[in-house]
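Running this now, will post back.
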Amino acid sequence: MKQRGVTIWLTGLSGAGKTTITHALEKKLREEGYPLEVLDGDIVRTNLTKGLGFSKEDRDTNVRRIGFVAGLLTRHGVIVLVSAISPYREIRDEIRGKVGDFVEVFVNAPLNVCEDRDVKGLYKRARSGEIKAFTGIDDPYEAPLNPEVECRTDLETLEESVDKVWQKLEEMGYVAKPVAV
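Update: finished.
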């Protein structure tokens, strides 16, 4: 039986826990032998979308490019983990429509929690005016209206968040349910 590809799109504010959940899911999927690729927003920005800024148009272009690559991989039976702020709902919905096999994971943590977790000091720099158009400060983040999964990383453990995503993938037939012995 051919593996069904899927794009698992983790969206949320900077510091919400997208990359942390992505790494844990990646580990579990690799241990189970699933073909997968990870498209991390920060890494993609330094390679695939280098030169783009942070205007709405550039952010949309960035997300479209990530979505294009994710769609190609998904069509070929790969599980794609996308970890990207992707702040605008309309573009995420556009990518969902193009990819088809798409699971949106809203990695949700309150702004103050994200600011407390901010090891890079980005929120502090945005609040001081050093960084302009920073998502969650002076640029909007549009939360998903109907994500397949919502991970409340301020209220649940990493394991609970990963389990929520895994259960949804089982339910939707993207990963095998454990066989009862």
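The two ends are 21 Å apart (CA to CA). More later if anyone needs it.
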